[in-house]
Amino acid sequence: MSNRTFTIIKPDSVRKGNFGKIIGRLEEQGFQVLGIKKVSLTQKQAEAFYGVHRERPFFKSLVEYMTSGPVYVAALERESAVPTLRQVMGATDPAKADAGTIRKEFGESIEQNAIHGSDSDENAKIEINFFFAESELL
Ligand code: UDP
Ligand code: MG
Predict the structure, then answer these.
(1) Residue 6's closest CA among 105, 106, 85, 101?
(2) 71 CB under 6 A from ligand 1?
(3) CA distances (Å), 72 to each of 49, 57, 98, in order?
(4) Model pTM?
(5) Is residue 110 lining ligand 1, measured as CB closer than 6 Å?
């Protein structure tokens, strides 16, 4: 069954001109884009979005990175959307990501790793609702 996930094309990707290439990869993998927008995350938005990591040593730097430039946020649809996106993205650390994954090809470091993808159906729903009204998803 077709379902939804959520992605962020992160600031390093936008800065380097990799937005189109990454979206192209997702389309090649059968994802439909239901909604997409370019946004500059505020510090409050970045802190809330990554709230689960608040106590981690990398949190402050992560928030600085995610607010360092515009990003694209998008709601995606595909069969098995959440696990498929995680596979296509690759491991959090680009150095450990499988060949052919987005993070292997476009990521710079464990922090500046090109793309976000939801880790569960439940979080996909929360993350989509963080940025989109249902009426914006086509
Ligand atoms: N991150 C980091 N240092 C770490 C682990 C994660 O800077 O040691 C950043 C990285 O940008 C990552 C984000 O925090 O994508 C969220 O971490 P998570 O463990 O949820 O990884 P993901 O689900 O993005 O693979
Ligand atoms: Mg995560």
Answers:
(1) 85
(2) no
(3) 14, 26, 24
(4) 0.98
(5) yes
Q: Is the CB of 5 under 6 A from ligand 1?
A: no
Q: Is 116 a catalytic residue?
A: yes
For residue 49, how many other CB atoms are within 10 A of its CB? Answer: 20
40 CB neighbour count, 10 Å cutoff:
12
**Closest ligand 1 atom number to CA of residue 119:** 23
Query: What domains sit in the chain, N to C, each tagged with a CATH number?
Result: 2-38+71-133 (3.30.70.141)
> What is d(CA 16, CA 95) in angstroms, rounded to the nearest whole number?
19
Residues 6+ positions from 79 with CB-CB distance below 8 Å: 1, 2, 3, 30
pLDDT confidence band for 1 (50 / 70 / 90): confident
* Confidence at residue 50, expressed as pLDDT on a 0 to 100 scale: 98
